[in-house]
């Protein structure tokens, strides 16, 4: 593998010198410093903290979870790399999930992550929070690059190729295979180089200030509020029409969620959504009748036959006053498909606003959804501020300063009756 100083340099348009010459990207197959030993105890964690503290510059950070396998979203491996200290692979599990010992080294330097909003919650759970942040995926979006996965960005900006690996694997598995660890180490191998290339590109485009605002918004974002009626997200629920059948979906979903949390197993591995919907529609009247449904015939589900049937029975005996509504209570504007009938003026405002934002998106090479949160746009067009203060409305809705400065004039024009068809 080439030394870091010899890697391809980004060109003005976000490509690399290698791309310009038609050269194939250089594959990254092994960590430049070799594969480090996994940190599994307090002594090794202390050594890692000291090494990171002695390093210089930003710290590349990544985390691996076991989404799709486990109920929790905890980190099962944390990868770190800093100039002068090399790469560290830290296993939080034997450390009790507590990595606060690393905080003295990590609290201060800029963290470089890819798709930071995915990893920050599990890192916070382990006791780690950044003081400053650079998100390479978000930087790629703001720079207008067509593909913002870590692999495509690394190839375009640095002329290096990362093998598609084990991101969707069961990282709760122990011991972790060596090829998984190589994949994990390579994920932070070039993050700081990628950060520098993207920062230079954003600076050239006049967008670096925008990016810094976005990174800070990601860093300081609190946890999302709990979803109202999360059971309504059951796949296939559109097949369920009657309130009592919806109550059965809710009861089975909640029973599954309790069991999944207790076992720390992904809910879909406890009972698939399709089985919940099928049982709700069939409405079996006995455990035996339930066991005749396809998924419930399996050995694992037969052991839980009485558990699932009790959930169904609780829904079947609910009084009508406690049955769920056919549709979730609305929070905000109605679906856009209904605007033309319910409020033609609001539909016209939204159409004009979308047209204006699409033009802004094209002229600045920034995705529309990064110019302004779609939900905030719908709320503005459905119920414009009575005083006409669009910038204040956007600010209260969480829009960043750069977004307000860029979009407010376009939106004010779209909301004006004179500009509506």
Features:
two-stranded parallel sheet; 48% helix; 21 helices; alpha/beta; 421 residues; single chain; disordered N terminus; 8 strands; 6-stranded mixed sheet
TL;DR of this structure?
The protein is an alpha/beta fold and 421 residues long. The protein has helices spanning 17-20, 42-54, 103-106, 116-125, 136-142, 150-158, 178-189, 191-205, 208-220, 243-263, 267-270, 273-282, 287-291, 299-303, 305-316, 339-342, 344-364, 368-371, 374-382, 390-396, 401-415; strands at residues 26-28, 38-39, 56-64, 77-83, 86-90, 110-113, 132-135, 160-162.
Characterization of this structure:
The chain contains 21 helices and eight strands. α4 (116-125) links the parallel β6 and β7. With 421 residues, it is an alpha/beta fold. A six-stranded mixed β-sheet has the order 2-5-4-3-6-7, sandwiched between helices. The chain is flat, with a radius of gyration of 26 Å. The N and C termini lie far apart (60 Å). The chain has helices at 17-20, 42-54, 103-106, 116-125, 136-142, 150-158, 178-189, 191-205, 208-220, 243-263, 267-270, 273-282, 287-291, 299-303, 305-316, 339-342, 344-364, 368-371, 374-382, 390-396, 401-415, and strands at 26-28, 38-39, 56-64, 77-83, 86-90, 110-113, 132-135, 160-162. Mean pLDDT is 92; it is low at 1-12 and 17-21.
